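Lab notebook, bench 4. We co-purified these components, and the gel suggests they stay together. Before we commit to crystallization screens, I want a quick structural picture of the whole thing.
Request: model the full complex, all chains together.
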Amino acid sequence: MRSKRVALPVVLGALLTAVAACTSSGVSSSLSTSANSGGGGAGGPVSLGETFMVSQWDPAQSVNPIVDFPYLAQVYDSLLLRKADGSLAPMLASSWQVSSDSKSITLHLRSGVTFADGSTMDANLVVQNLRRYQQAKTAIAAQLANVASISAVNASTIRLTLKQADPLVLYNLSWSAGLMVGKNGLADPAALSKKPDGSGAFTLQSQTPTAVTFVRNPSYWDKTIEYAPKLTISDILDPSARINAFQTGQINIASVKLGDNYTAAKSLASAGQGQLYSYKSNAQYQIFLNTKVAPLGKPAVRQALNLAINRSELNTALLNGQCPPSSSVAPAGTIGHVDGLDAVPTDIAKAKSLLQSAGVSSLTIRMLVPSSAPFTLIAPALQQMFANIGVNLLLDQVEVQSAFPTWRQGGSEAMLNQATIPVPDTVAYAEDSVIGPDSPGGAPSDIVALINAARPLPIGSPQRDTAEQAITKALYNSPLQLPICQIPDTYLYTKAVSDVDNLPYASDFDAPNARFLNSTPKS
Amino acid sequence: MTVRYLVRRLVSVAVTLILVSAGAVLLIDLVPGDPAVVAAGDFATPGSIAAARHSLGLDKPLLPRLLEFFGHVLTGNFGTSANLNPGIPVSTIIAEALPVTISLTLVSLLIAIVIAVPVGIAAAQKPGSVLDRSLTALASMFLAIPSFVVGLILIRVFAIQLGWAPALGYVPISQSFVGWISHLILPSITLALVSASEIARQVRSAFVETLEQDYIRVAEAAGLKRPTILFDRALRNSAVPILTVTGFQAARILGGIVIVETIYGLPGIGTLAYNSVLRRDLPVMQGVIVVSALLIVGFNLLADVVLVLVTPNNRLQPV
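Here is the predicted assembly.
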């Protein structure tokens, strides 16, 4: 009788033991230590709560470089460094020159760079890396699409010959196409996808399904900076969970999203329990339009839709007043920005008149909407605004990851999403959103001509600025896509974290490179 | 008789798993969007989409796909992840998540039982009394509150304000028992409260009925002590409905793990399910569906077996 009475506890106990046995391999601790206790400001460990997770460790196999890069950039170095202010600086290449016709780039490589596998960097290894990226079947190949040939000039110099002048190639060498892999990693891509082989400031310590921990690389070539002893990046998708983790000290810096956890973060900052820092990002919320669809191909219809959007209302009512309204494809901080091109004021009467002049009496548009905040908040508001001019906007919710791939198939009429580009440059924007995959209907020939004229001009030159401003004005007067507002990239952090204003790529998209957090210059 | 009963239950489990597996394959054709497009990434070309479609097996007709998937279920091979961890076997990803979810489920169940049995017995002592009504009302309240609300309240009070337990994350038991239990305690209570309410109500009604039986009166007349009557005689004779409802609660707890694991940042099957749906990782989605079904039927089977072992009548005549 006794054995029957204890049957359930015995079974439960046995299962618990089995679980204990199962857990002895694989999963390791995630977020188990207090990150902001005892950190003591600059120089202490950093634990960053983000909204994405690395998919694998081979830059060439990454199908989504935007979300993989923040992890890869800790264990790999790129040829050039994109600083937080947007400028380029030496990294694995100690210097570079662009030829007078802008069709050739020469990179002088640093010596003494050692990879995780023990191999050292030389020109042949770099050439091998870049050629591999060119031949990859992933997005990384597009970053080097304008490169005709790559060759080693000598053991420490390489040359890239371009098909046409394209200064953006330099910027791509500071992003995923510039990440260099060691000899063994190149020889075994299958192993590389699971274990990085880089020369970065950190080495991979542990990885769980929700967190990756890096520790400072003791043999890092750059002895001028002391990086944080430990950097943990956690994928905490739930916005409240990110705030909770911050409050309990499990992370000491958290990514903050508008219309999601911004209000909670602001409250904590106001109560002195953290500080907020916002980058003026070049990314914008935008309605992408497919101009192949009959009525949307008419400029007057697009202008009417543009005039129907009440950007100020969206910002104040739904986006915490933190998303400055914008109708320009080149917001402040972007090359090609034109002062005075403010957000188009809402004008319902004019919008209706434009629709009438275009011969459109009834219009229904189906719009893809990513199923996350703030898109799910903005979309119904846009529905109402378009209804004011007699346009019926139907919303098709799609998973966040599905939105762009689905849109790029060209079968949809419109999409609400972020326009993000790794370089704050109007031509870079145009390559994707005007004549590239994000504009299934393409662009009128006059716009294409303006883009082609601007592309080869050196970045920073007055000629390029003028040429890009011409693109901006043309797209402002006759929009192909409808920008809504400039998205800030915001972080909530404790006093234990420094250098929050020094996150490369934070101004371009909300997946920055966190390697400089809590770094200190060495004397 | 027990063996025949077990065989019947195992056949029923197999049929359930076959139906669930078929559902997992069909689901992909029914949900909007193209998994191949997503797997090919943001900058996909028609060629890379076709390659992704081929590697996911989506270029095959439904029937061969179905048969192939049944084969995969039998061998535990669900292919490799498409988006979450490209190239990593789904079985490896699930094996990493499974201990978290099993830990959470078992600790939740344990807490539910520990709360429910004394509460149910106490309420059954004097049916209609203030204590009975109060406990019944409390149980009804916890049944009515969604688990995510309970979770957020527990985090606010016990993790943030009192600092007694972490708000999120997981530590394997092999690494630290204290770390393991401290990370599980709040999510387990979150899941356990609803189940405890359900089980407590069942314990109460079973005890009310049992305590009115003649053999209990005889035991009282014979001078047996109250605890002996309650825990030896009454509990044993009330076990059938209690165990039945407890078995159902295991499935109910598993049903609530998606929300609770997400709120508490636990890297278990629930989080995996959420991430795989969000990132349209078809092989992981299918693996998670089948493994979740396996867990639920497994817990139900376990409850049935325990029921047979505990109750002599059932062992002779299984229902």
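Residues 290 and 413 of chain A are 5 Å apart (CA to CA). Worth comparing against the SEC data before the next meeting. Confidence is low (pLDDT under 50) at residues 1-40 of chain A.
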